[in-house]
Design a protein that fits this description.
The complex is a heterodimer of chains A (about 325) and B (about 325). Chain A contains twelve helices and 14 strands. By secondary structure, chain A is α/β, with parallel strands linked by helices. Chain A has two domains: about 190 residues, Thiamin diphosphate (ThDP)-binding fold, Pyr/PP domains (Rossmann fold), CATH 3.40.50.970; about 130 residues, Rossmann fold (3-Layer(aba) Sandwich). In chain A, β10, α8 and β11 form a beta-alpha-beta unit. Chain A is globular. Chain B has about 325 residues and is of the alpha/beta class. Chain B contains eleven helices and seven strands. In chain B, the strands form two sheets. In chain B, strands 1-2-3-7-6 form a five-stranded parallel sheet, sandwiched between helices. In chain B, β4 and β5 form a beta hairpin. In chain B, α2 runs parallel beside α8. The chains are: A alpha/beta (about 325), B alpha/beta (about 325).
């Protein structure tokens, strides 16, 4: 049975159902229970924004709080995964990648290849990303393209509560290292989510809206900005197709290319910085594989090549929005 | 010495000799140009890997370093496969995709040599955590050098292991050199093990060239870990007979330093003298092992040289389980 729950609760439900199903699933991260070593509640936080709230009460020591030592505890999740566990380890903000990247980039991602196919490392790393909280340069970044660059990692960017639950369960059951990126501005968003367990396969894009005039490929929170722009454009008779790849490694090239073959025009919307990004990656692929179908230049709507700013005025200018997307679409119609 | 049976003494000698012959032969073969990439040799440090791994079974896991051949052999990784791997051959332990710095055999509890200094201790914490959850009494041993003792990952892992009460032994192999830089420059305390106090765990320093000293200290730490007593930092002071990598002229070492170490502080010579003078083993028994080991290393090199290389199809496989 389906009911409306939030993106945050959908993630919590996925974790809980998988922990119930499989005892090798463990959860670890800063304050994932919250309150250890204190006189107060032992299950106080459930992560800094409460995503894992209540799991400690249900699963006890399988929910592990960690010292603020990302390299050590993320590395230990990788090591545990190589030894038969299925850890779901949280890195609070993707901006903290710098302090623990080696354990993902050089360890988890490379084991299977370096070891001649003789290992599996089923680790999931959950992490928050994205702007909108006036959290400034070190708590607002969108760094998934760095992760998608690394062979051996899978990268998942859910945009709805339904996708968040189904994709996270798929992540936990998958036998490769997967990074699951949660947009912090989507946690409160509600949507239809089945109560029962289900999975969404990696590499299957969602066609959010069909249209014949132009294709928008958008990621994460930007899917909603793109849909808003598409709804506005529809009022003037412009039919935009909106595609949400949902996973960026692997990525569903076939659906993107097929759409561009149909519409002849592409706008890519990516909250990340523009250089060496998913926006450039998708643009390059379309140029290489569907050049003859293009009837206009590809447009990218992205953050500028600057760090995320603090002041609300500046951050509002920094993050792509529906108006900017609509303007980009109109510029190539 | 007394607690070890004769067969254990012969086994320890055989493992140390296998490592020594393996490394001495690689030193010779590398100079011929037939071995690709970088090779970092463990000769001189054999008593450390052997004295520790003699206590371990396949359900115990270790992480190793860029200088990993000795740990692999002591943990029971197949020598024929290792040599083929170092030659970049398809028959190698990792099908020629890892090389000297990435030899791993998870079934043997060998989580991999590692090209990143200090990367192993977090992985071993995870392996030990898995043992706890699976309800085995498996322990983890993280081998790392004096250079790696200054990596944040190593220090973070010591803290984490104690916070989670993990069955881990942090095994500092202090060979006196972080690449070409002396330990006196990099480590401000007399011993690396002095740092254990800061993480609330026992810290022990032993002569790493004395197999029996390593064996006994490792035994205490491993038993403590198996019984739920938590982590230990064990430092073994030892020698590195070759350079940081093959081709290193070692001009940073004092004249005659290695020659003196080989004459006065060679773990194999020290071991042989002790067991023979105690009447536990005869010189003839050790010589018989020497011959068998020499034949084994000859066979490993011959097979590695003759083995096929990977093919183009191998380039794209084993990145993911599924993609």
């Amino acid at each position: 049975m389906s009911r409306k729950i939030s993106y945050k609760d959908a993630i919590n439900e996925a974790l809980s159902q998988e922990m119930e199903r499989d005892k090798s699933v463990i959860v670890m991260g800063l304050d994932n229970a919250g309150g250890r070593g204190t006189e107060g509640e032992k299950d106080a936080w459930g992560g800094v924004l409460g995503v894992t709230k209540g799991l400690y009460g249900k699963y006890g020591d399988r929910v592990m709080d960690t010292p603020i030592s990302e390299a050590a505890y993320i590395g230990s999740a990788v090591g545990a995964a190589a030894c038969g566990m299925r850890p779901v380890v949280e890195m609070m903000f993707v901006d903290f990648l710098g302090v623990c990247f080696d354990q993902m980039m050089n360890q988890a991602a490379k084991f299977r290849y370096m070891f001649g196919g003789k290992s599996v490392t089923p680790v999931v790393m959950r992490t928050m990303y994205g702007g909108g909280f006036r959290a400034a340069a070190q708590h607002s970044q969108v760094l998934y393209s760095i992760l998608a660059h690394i062979p051996g990692l899978k990268v998942v960017v859910p945009s709805t509560p339904y996708d968040a639950k189904g994709l996270l369960i798929e992540c936990i059951r998958d036998n490769d290292p997967v990074i699951f990126l949660e947009h912090k501005a989507l946690y409160g968003m509600k949507g239809e989510v089945p109560e029962e367990s289900y999975t969404i396969p990696f590499g299957q894009a969602n066609i959010v809206r069909e249209g014949k005039d132009l294709t928008i490929v958008a990621l994460g929170r930007m899917v909603h900005m793109a849909s808003q722009a598409a709804a506005s454009l529809a009022k003037t008779g412009v039919e935009v197709e909106v595609i949400d790849p949902r996973t960026i490694s692997p990525i569903d090239w076939a659906t993107i290319l097929k759409s561009v073959e149909k519409t002849g025009k592409l706008v890519v919307v990516d909250e990340a910085n523009p250089r060496c990004s998913m926006a450039t990656d998708i643009s390059a692929k379309v140029v290489q594989e569907a050049f003859k179908a293009l009837t206009a230049p590809i447009k990218m709507v992205t953050a500028p090549h600057t760090p995320p700013p603090f002041s609300d005025v500046l951050e509002d200018l920094y993050i792509p929005n529906a108006a900017k997307i609509e303007a980009a679409v109109r510029s190539i119609l | 010495m007394s607690e070890l049976k004769k067969e254990d003494l012969l086994k320890a000698y055989r493992i140390m000799k296998e490592i020594r012959e393996f490394e001495e032969r690689l030193h010779v073969e590398f100079a011929t140009g037939k071995i690709p990439g970088f090779v970092h040799l463990y000769a001189g440090e054999e008593a450390v890997a052997t004295g520790v791994c003699m206590h371990l079974t396949d359900q115990d896991r270790i992480s190793s370093t860029h200088r990993g051949h000795g740990h692999c052999i002591a943990k029971g990784v197949d020598i024929i496969g290792m040599m083929a791997e170092i030659y970049g051959k398809k028959t190698g332990t990792c099908c020629g995709k890892g090389g000297s710095m990435h030899i791993a055999d998870l079934e043997k509890g060998m989580l991999g040599a590692n090209g990143i200094v200090g990367a192993g201790p977090p992985l071993v914490c995870g392996a030990a955590l898995a043992s706890k959850f699976k309800g085995t009494d498996g322990v983890g041993v993280a081998f790392f050098g004096d250079g790696a003792s200054n990596q944040g990952t190593v220090l973070e892992s010591m803290n984490l292991a104690n916070v989670w009460n993990l069955p881990v032994i942090f095994l500092a192999e202090n060979n006196g050199y972080a690449e070409s830089t002396g330990v006196k420059y990099n480590v401000p305390t007399p011993n690396i093990a002095d740092r254990a106090a800061g993480f609330g765990m026992p810290g022990v320093t032993v002569d790493g060239n004395d197999f029996f000293a390593v064996y006994e200290a490792a035994g205490v730490a491993i038993r403590r870990a198996r019984e739920g007593g938590g982590p230990t930092l064990l430092e073994c002071k030892t020698n590195r007979f070759f350079g940081h990598f093959e081709g290193d002229a070692m001009t940073y070492k004092a004249p005659g330093e290695v020659k003196r170490q080989r004459e006065e502080n060679d773990c194999l010579k020290i071991f042989s003298a002790k067991v023979i003078s105690a009447g536990l083993v005869t010189a003839a028994e050790l010589e018989a092992i020497d011959k068998e080991v020499a034949a084994l290393i000859n066979e490993a090199v011959a097979k590695a040289v003759a083995a096929p290389k990977p093919t183009e199809a191998d380039l794209l496989t084993d990145v993911y389980v599924s993609y």
